[in-house]
Amino acid sequence: MEKDATQLPNESASQQSQLTAHAYAYSQDSSQTDPLRRNRWLLPVSFAIGCLPWIVLFAMFAAAIIGAAAGLGRGPHVALIRVSGTITTGRSSGALFGDTVAGSEDIVAQLEKARKNRYAKGILLRINSPGGSAAGSQEIYEEIVRVRRSGKPVYCSMGSVAASGGYYVASACDRIFADGGTITGSIGVIFETADLSGLFKKIGLNPQVVKSGKFKDIGSPNRPMTPEERKLLTEMLMGIYEQFVKAVAAGRRLPLQEVRKVADGRLFTGEQALKVKLVDKLGGLQEAIAELGRAVGLKEEPDVVEYGRRGLFGSLIGDDSASALRKLAPERLLYIRDLLGME
Predict the structure, then answer these.
(1) Rounded CA gap, 283 and 182, in Å?
(2) Rounded distance, CA 59 to CA 75, Å?
(3) Which residues are paired to 227 by β-bridges?
(4) What is the number of domains present in the chain?
(5) What positions carry a catalytic annotation?
(6) pLDDT > 90 fraction of the chain, expressed in percent and rounded
(7) Which of these, 175, 143, 113, 152, lies nearest to 297 by C-alpha position?
(8) pLDDT at 111 over 90
(9) Do 177 and 195 reside in the same domain of the chain?
(10) Closest CA relative to residue 125, chosen from 275, 315, 285, 328
(11) pLDDT, position 58
(12) Can you tell me the distance from the alpha carbon of 77 to that of 298, in angstroms, rounded to the nearest whole number?
């Protein structure tokens, strides 16, 4: 009896350990066989992943709205508009962190926005362009003239280069600033093509052309240019050249003959351009901002709002979305600014 009594606690302990082992095994089996318990983390993770694109889109849209509202509601300021890269008709495009093509449609829209904004007291064009399309330059030129007629002054600050079409645009401004080492001028028009017929003959290539008229393939590299074609192209280019010269003379308020003396395609440094009256003053961007600020009655260092700067969010949103935001009435953007508590 004593022996049985002493063995009872040991048997109870053994039974308890067996029950514990069975319970653990059951819990393991049930967790493995219960898909809801095993995959309970999938639902919140899937929900978060599904919502992420919408959160990003909302953040980009909000950033664009805030930027537009801030640009309209900073009080009296100087509007800064950049003309960077090759000038063309259409929209601006280029690298993520800076435009390489200056589209006349975008620049005209920015000028119009500044003209209509009562807070923009003056406009400063920062030009860094070797030129480009004559038609694109003319569109920007004409819009600058419209802004000036509305009573707002337009100044120009030249960067490294403001030549050919870049100078065409600059000549429409009230005053032009250039650095001493700025490359400008190049008043003229050019058309280039290459005659590759000799090369084609060497490699055995014989292009065939079907055309509706004798001038339809003018400038083709397949054959030499005829004297009649050269005369036609020269007349066309000289017509555009005359438009260029007259625009510079009107914008700079110079006699036509005085402009013709320097309108032979030559380049000038900023110092040389000052001597022939193609620019008004030597100085950089800050000097131009300060003088424009004084001209419109602002402080020595006026607030400057850059129009048209898209940055990363704007590049991701795209041109169409940016155009839609530009169509919002200024009063609505200012209302959004007040709701957000922006100064």
Answers:
(1) 10
(2) 26
(3) none
(4) 2
(5) 164, 216
(6) 63
(7) 152
(8) yes
(9) no
(10) 285
(11) 66
(12) 8
